[in-house]
Amino acid sequence: MSASARSFDLAVVGAGICGLAHALAAARRGKRVVVFDRDAQANGASIRNFGFITITGQQAGACWARAMRSREVWSEVAEAARIPVLQRGLLTVARRPEARRVIEDFLATEMGAECRLVEPAGLADYGAGLRAGRFAGALYSPHEMRVESREAIPQLAAWLAERHGVVFHYQTAVHAAAPPRLETSAGAFEAGAVVVCPGDDFRTLHPERIAAYGLRRCLLHMMRLAPAAFDPALPAVMSDLGMVRYLGYAELPAAAALARRLEAEQAAHLDNGVHLIVVRSADGSLVVGDSHHYAATPPPFAPTRVDDLILDEYAEVFDGPLPPVVERWTGTYASAADRLMLVDRPSDALRIVLITSGTGASTSFAIAEEVIDELYGSAHGVPA
Ligand SMILES: Cc1cc2nc3c(=O)[nH]c(=O)nc-3n(C[C@H](O)[C@H](O)[C@H](O)COP(=O)(O)OP(=O)(O)OC[C@H]3O[C@@H](n4cnc5c(N)ncnc54)[C@H](O)[C@@H]3O)c2cc1C
């Protein structure tokens, strides 16, 4: 390899959505960028998630604003990289009057400006197949987008290489990152700046810096249901359980009464961090999840009772027979008790960026723009 092939303006560690977002933001500034990933292709949270760019429900303030900005970038790159957008919008059904009151509170915030309350009789306008007669209403949001992550992430990387000249070194582990020098399993590289986006690997690069944040991993269960008579017009669907998990709802005054009722009626769901997200794939199959279990090292065992809780909630929301489960998987992401993301600054030219909540698909593009602006100089920096 020539000397110039080993020397870059910016090196990014990690080819998940966080790393790719930083590569994009720097490449758009004309920087020569190299991305390293120890796997043959991204294999972490970024390809295991719903591919659901969630706006409505994100915590009010910075997170919601980052999701709005990231959605804009997703729209641009999806079109440019020919990544299909499979669904748009979100319908959060209220199974209980308490959940409807959370929707009413939400609509009174600035985040609710383009969203609307849907009465049960009006739900058919959004697509067939919901048990609408049992609901107290629903919240419709037009903001969301859904991509098939396992295809979209490799497509995004290929487009970054082709359109922006980003160089990728897969199957290359980075052992040390202290700009201007990186030590990798493929030898030494040089870069003027380094951004480390290691996902839930807290031990390889700068472990003492990451340890200071007291992180754990969060394990999630996911399933794919066989193609079914699922109305392709339906947007993504969530239910009451999501309103006590997503901070954009959970921090509203009416959420306390909903939480009390769910504790009485769905304690097992809450204990396992279960809520419902249902999105549709191109072949008509459904990606359904998820659950949340926290540990330093989550067990590799995935009890079926957790999947059954997710499917119970599916059956409460959708009419008709439950389609067979054709695929099950788990994923993990970094989790912090006190923050949704973190940017650590060991030196002027080094940043460690972790999305410490289940929001990376929805916020990484905006976070990366802020980090790259701060690294290369701009009016606004990163508050976290
Ligand atoms: C099941 C599931 C569902 C989710 N649903 C949603 C959702 O609906 N909406 C949403 O916004 N978010 C969702 N998330 C969260 C989102 O997927 C994550 O926040 C995001 O993918 C994190 O991206 P990342 O790039 O930081 O990490 P990852 O995707 O884990 O990528 C990190 C990469 O770094 C590489 N790496 C680490 N250390 C090194 C090293 N030393 N050398 C070389 N390579 C290294 C790893 O190999 C890996 O490829 C979900 C997550 C899961 C698991």
From TrEMBL:
<dbReference type="InterPro" id="IPR036188">
    <property type="entry name" value="FAD/NAD-bd_sf"/>
</dbReference>
<keyword id="KW-0560">Oxidoreductase</keyword>
<protein>
    <submittedName>
        <fullName>FAD dependent oxidoreductase TIGR03364</fullName>
    </submittedName>
</protein>
<keyword id="KW-0285">Flavoprotein</keyword>
<feature type="domain" description="FAD dependent oxidoreductase">
    <location>
        <begin position="9"/>
        <end position="373"/>
    </location>
</feature>
<dbReference type="InterPro" id="IPR017741">
    <property type="entry name" value="FAD-dependent_OxRdtase_HpnW"/>
</dbReference>
<dbReference type="Pfam" id="PF01266">
    <property type="entry name" value="DAO"/>
</dbReference>
<dbReference type="InterPro" id="IPR006076">
    <property type="entry name" value="FAD-dep_OxRdtase"/>
</dbReference>
<comment type="similarity">
    <text>Belongs to the DadA oxidoreductase family.</text>
</comment>
